[in-house]
Description:
Elements: H1 8-17, H2 38-45, E1 53-55, E2 73-78, E3 98-102, E4 112-114, E5 134-135, E6 139-140, E7 152-160, H3 161-165, E8 175-176, H4 178-188, E9 197-201, H5 204-211, E10 222-223, H6 228-234, E11 238-241, H7 258-263, E12 270-273, H8 278-287, E13 291-296, E14 306-308, E15 312-314
Amino acid sequence: xxxxxxxxxxxxxxxxxxxxxxxxxxxxxxxxxxxxxxxxxxxxxxxxxxxxxxxxxxxxxxxxxxxxxxxxxxxxxxxxxxxxxxxxxxxxxxxxxxxxxxxxxxxxxxxxxxxxxxxxxxxxxxxxxxxxxxxxxxxxxxxxxxxxxxxxxxxxxxxxxxxxxxxxxxxxxxxxxxxxxxxxxxxxxxxxxxxxxxxxxxxxxxxxxxxxxxxxxxxxxxxxxxxxxxxxxxxxxxxxxxxxxxxxxxxxxxxxxxxxxxxxxxxxxxxxxxxxxxxxxxxxxxxxxxxxxxxxxxxxxxxxxxxxxxxxxxx
Length: 315
């Protein structure tokens, strides 16, 4: 039997029932990562047994693709051309290579975290600040990525939905449900806890690797809005997946991106988009171990709504 998804009215009510406004003070700009206490981090470090590290980031490519309409820009301000022969080819005093990089990290291609300035609801950010405080001229003067400059180091838990379901990948347009998370807990022997970094593998990146890039118009899987109450109940600090983290085509008219539109402005939930969970899934299966330390270090980019990241799992 297909699992029932919540009505639009119920999802809209999550803005009140799942709200964390004021929970950590009226001026708080960090949100759910407040749940990563020093003790939580200390216990996460204690999970390290082998010292084996696994990146959770996709490689940043410079070419456009069906799902990369605005590819990052990379060019060399200085290169090694000519220096090998001893010919000086620029006014620079020393032989060195220097890059320039520019990117739109939001989207479905680059692994990044969303700060609490990324989404609004009814003209407000998380904790009720007016949306106009995130402006074209000044950027995110509130809720920027800078409050995360010390990083998130906590226990990571991987919910590998294809592994638990016995499939290759979750289909586009289908949402991961709370029952999938609960089934993973039972199958893999963990319990999602307060302060965790919850990682949901859908297999969508694996599908891209097998079939190639597909335009965004074909849709996407992600966690369904029904997962939001579970995120709130368990007190996760960060959630991420191998997708852009909202089901497409949209399942609701008034709130087409509920994971972002409830998670960020109501819950203060930091979201990791477009993670590479393929290597860490293989590492988990090899060890029959689905929890590990995770370190996420956003760049302290002044007045920005997020940051590209290279999260590291440590076993």
